Amino acid sequence: MKAVLKSVIPIDTMKYVIEFSSVDDANMFRAIFATAQEKAQKIISSFGIATKRRSLSANAYAWALMNQLAAKINRPVLDIYRDLIRDIGGSSALVTLCADAAKAFKNGWESKGEGWQVHKLDEMTTPQGTFYNLQCWYGSSQFDPSQMHRLIELIVQECQQQGIPTMTPEEIAKLKGLTDDAPTDTQ
Description:
Structural class: alpha+beta
Low-confidence stretches: 178-187
Strand content: 15-25%
Strand order of the largest sheet: 3-5-4
Mean pLDDT: 80
Number of helices: 6
């Protein structure tokens, strides 16, 4: 269920009354609440900051171009995608883990999607054990519009080098929702 934070009222240093406005059907919340009360269960929620995500049309265009590129250069499309993901700024995190946990972490991370990747940067041996520094890339499903813009720019560059036709920069900007499609008043 999705909701928007309406207000937070402090009761004391450790307690707050938090009021939400339901984005989804309010009946859904009532059903969840009634079921929890009936079964004497707690309701658990998680909080996050809403961010603008990449558009699905931009994603579809990116994949269409990558498929054309893959056919032209005879290379697997997923290899192209995974290489390009690593060129997008802000699309990775650095993590340090004990060596024993690294394999399970890598499997879990990479199971989230094709673009989700983990590469070992280095290894440190300490009295507490061996640790790995890992660079972890997010897939494009987590990209904001500016990251998606950069990914499409890279794909378009690769396609143009191979003579594959692409949209104009203006068409791409509209596709990605990076420009206002409404006419502007120039008077």
